């Protein structure tokens, strides 16, 4: 049995996680992203719960149910109930918000449970070497800070018993230098899988702020899940209209152009980034492309399919295309990919994202195969 406070805290954390899981759909649909407090920890705003309490009345007015009065009269002698929207402005506090801290692992676990996501099975070689030190051994030498007192006194007792110096009637155990024992570390070499996520997004005029907000929200939760599955992860960003360029995260979600769209420009740059930086034998590669489906010409679409078929898909764990619905987009590229690869394929995952309410379903489509 643990301390009551610790039990209550654990119970509270369980309740909070349950509430986050229940409301994840609404939370994601609002486009809210948990605030990163520090590495691996996120703050999630939640309405606080007002603890019920009794209010003492005036002793001169009698007890409950006594005295004159009419239905709907206020118990404390104030004015009766008012309809919504009536009354004067007040100076009292509004509803408070409780900020709950969850680790990356806890938040990813909630997402995984909600969407029933399988653990990812990495491909390729395990190339990142990491070393961990665990104090699992005992040594005759070491710093005083690592002295193992129990082992040291046990050695002293064994020595005194062997020499006949131990007195049961008046036990006194005094270790000497040769009795001292120290905790010793053992270095364990481990090899971890690494991954790279390459986001590509059409930033032409037909991709408005709402479409970019959908991509921003979805990419956050995709990153969260992948970070929980891999020890090391790189994230690269590509924007394109008729031309493509690599940018940082902030530029990725803020840039808006008005030119035409050549999807092949993004796929060419994606291929270049992979070829120059990420050996598919050593990295798990995840290219994501988001667009409203417009492309400049059928010739460019043929070029896109050729790059995907011969260069990107063979080197990737899976290629993911998310088509964000836009009143200005034709959605043709989705149809072209279905025509080439079919609606269901192990190497390429297609998802239609109608609005913010569809984000979680899209994430499940992308990550649900555990690749």
Written account of the structure:
This protein is an alpha/beta fold and 371 residues long. The protein has three domains: 63 residues, no CATH class; 63 residues, no CATH class; 175 residues, Rossmann fold, CATH 3.40.50.410. It has ten helices and eleven strands. A six-stranded mixed beta sheet has the order 8-7-6-9-10-11, sandwiched between helices. Strands 1-2-3 form a three-stranded antiparallel beta sheet. It has a two-stranded antiparallel ribbon with strand order 4-5. Helix 1 crosses helix 3 and helix 7 packs parallel to helix 8. The protein starts with a helix and ends with a helix. The model has no long low-confidence stretch (mean pLDDT 81).
Topology:
Blueprint: H1 4-22, H2 24-29, E1 35-38, E2 41-47, E3 97-103, H3 104-115, E4 128-139, H4 149-163, E5 182-192, E6 194-202, H5 209-229, E7 232-240, E8 244-247, H6 249-254, H7 263-277, E9 283-291, H8 298-312, E10 319-324, H9 332-341, E11 348-353, H10 359-367
Parallel strand pairs: 6-7, 6-9, 9-10, 10-11
Antiparallel strand pairs: 1-2, 2-3, 4-5, 7-8
Helix pairs in contact: 1-3, 3-5, 5-10, 7-8
């Amino acid at each position: 049995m643990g301390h009551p406070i610790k039990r209550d805290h654990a119970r509270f954390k369980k309740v909070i996680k349950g509430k986050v899981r229940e409301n994840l759909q609404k939370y994601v649909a609002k486009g809210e992203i948990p605030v990163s407090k520090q590495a691996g920890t996120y703050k999630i705003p939640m309405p606080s719960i007002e603890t019920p309490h009794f209010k003492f009345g005036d002793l001169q007015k009698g007890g409950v149910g006594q005295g004159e009065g009419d239905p709907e009269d206020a118990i404390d002698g104030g004015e009766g109930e008012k309809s919504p929207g009536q009354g004067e402005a007040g100076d009292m506090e509004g509803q408070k918000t409780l900020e709950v801290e969850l680790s990356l692992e806890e938040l990813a676990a909630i997402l995984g449970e909600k969407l029933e996501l399988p653990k990812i099975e990495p491909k390729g070689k395990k190339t990142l070497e990491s070393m961990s030190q665990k104090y699992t051994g005992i040594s005759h030498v070491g710093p005083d800070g690592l002295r193992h007192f129990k082992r040291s006194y046990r050695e002293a007792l064994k020595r005194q018993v062997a020499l006949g110096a131990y007195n049961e009637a008046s036990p006194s155990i005094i270790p000497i230098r040769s009795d001292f024992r120290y905790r010793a570390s053992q270095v364990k070499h481990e090899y971890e899988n690494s991954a790279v996520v390459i986001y590509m997004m059409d930033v032409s005029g037909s991709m408005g702020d709402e479409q970019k907000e959908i991509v921003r929200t979805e990419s956050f939760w995709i990153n969260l899940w992948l970070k929980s599955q891999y020890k090391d992860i790189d994230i690269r960003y590509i924007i394109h209209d008729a031309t493509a360029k690599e940018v940082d995260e902030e530029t990725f979600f803020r840039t808006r152009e008005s030119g035409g769209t050549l999807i092949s420009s993004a796929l060419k740059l994606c291929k270049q980034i992979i070829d120059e930086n990420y050996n598919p034998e050593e990295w798990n590669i995840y290219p994501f492309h988001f667009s409203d489906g417009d492309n400049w010409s059928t010739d460019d679409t043929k070029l896109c399919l050729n790059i995907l078929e011969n260069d990107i898909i063979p080197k990737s764990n899976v290629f993911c295309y998310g088509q964000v619905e836009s009143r200005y987009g034709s959605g043709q590229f989705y149809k072209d990919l279905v025509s080439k690869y079919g609606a269901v394929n192990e190497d390429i995952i297609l998802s239609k994202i109608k609005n913010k309410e569809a984000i979680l379903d899209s994430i499940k489509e992308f990550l649900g195969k555990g690749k």
